[in-house]
Amino acid sequence: MSSFERKPLPSSSSRLAVPTSSGGGSRTNDGGALSGRVLVRVICTAGSGALDYTHAFITAYATDHLRGALAQRLSVGAYELFSNALNFGSVSSDIVLELIESDTWVGVRVSNDAISARIAMLSEHLSKLETNAEQTYLEEFRRSVTGGIPRPMLGLARVTHEAGLTLDLQVQDRRVSVTAQCRR
Description:
This protein is of the alpha+beta class and about 180 residues long. The protein has helices at about 50-65, 70-90, 115-130, 135-145, 155-160; strands at about 5, 15-20, 35-45, 95-100, 105-115, 165-170, 175-184. The protein starts with a strand and ends with a strand.
């Protein structure tokens, strides 16, 4: 079940920002994480069937609120981040999806609890994207087509390479927050 509310997220203890493939900087503002006005906040649980209808809502809202190309980019980010959280997040805690804007940046942030092995895997994948988003995208795409092992991790590569969004990872204990963001 999903609900809508506005509350600040806790601050983080570790961060990793991944620049876009176009060479944008790895930090977006003073702290690296997008801070600003929360336009939409959706809360649900892992394993729920919330992906399709939540994505449709976020896409419609972003399309109404932001210019077309920007809304499309955030739609890709929202889908991939939310899908990952629903599939890999802990079923014992809430998943939070937020659409956020500041004067110069917009983004989508998804937060969920995860086990340390998944957090390590996510950090490693983001490091690969930070090093070379295009190469990582191509490797993951090939694995998704050929059914390679380990399982392909194409979603975040799509966010950085296709949508051109910067990813920011914040981890506090077991709580993971990934933000996909770009300049307005």
